[in-house]
Amino acid sequence: MRIFKVMDADKFWKKVDSYLTDSLNQAWLCRKVGIPESTLSSAIKRKAWPRADIATRIADVLGVNLRMLITGEEEIEGDSTTKVSRSPRQSTIEESSETEEPTILVPLAPQKIAAGQGEEFLPPSEYLGYVRILERMARGIDPLSLMAVTVKGDSMTGVQIFERDVVIFARDHISENGIYIISLYGDLKVKRLEFRSGEQQIFIHSENSRYTMEVVPMESENLQILGKVVGWIHCHPY
Question: Is the pTM of this model over 0.70?
Fold first, then answer.
């Protein structure tokens, strides 16, 4: 795993501005990206980072590599997998050589999720960096929906999810039973969900015998399913 060091947001916007011209200006960029000009002007004035999806669309419109925009580096020394591309393509998917698998850059949220007692969920206002994962870890998933978060606690050790591991999940993706990121009574957690449609209930399992199972109605206002986990990266000190 590699977590990339990002530039200051001010440098990000200056890098974006270097690709604009008199005709292809900020107004043109806003139309292409699909955001109000006031949103762009405010972010530049406050030297604030855009959301990951907006940053990705900006890179797409400009035809540049997203990592280059957020790090200022076209290619990290010793890393031959990433090439700068001027063609319009999904910027979160990295080019690879014929002998290496394609990878995806996933934004790392600032808050930690709890595999234990939980933590109040706060929407990320600024990403800590980006994590590279294999594209096949999220096969069939929209790359723009992916988010990385750091685990704290020990309730999921039975499936080898340890404290400080980095979990990758697809926002708003809900399918069958599996491991999900949820907000339960305002606490952000990673848990295994079992959907019992006949009973109209959701069973919330921990993977540690020290924790009890919880049951909530499927229409419970206290449960928000944020997305399904597609994989995780071990940072556990074995």
Answer: no
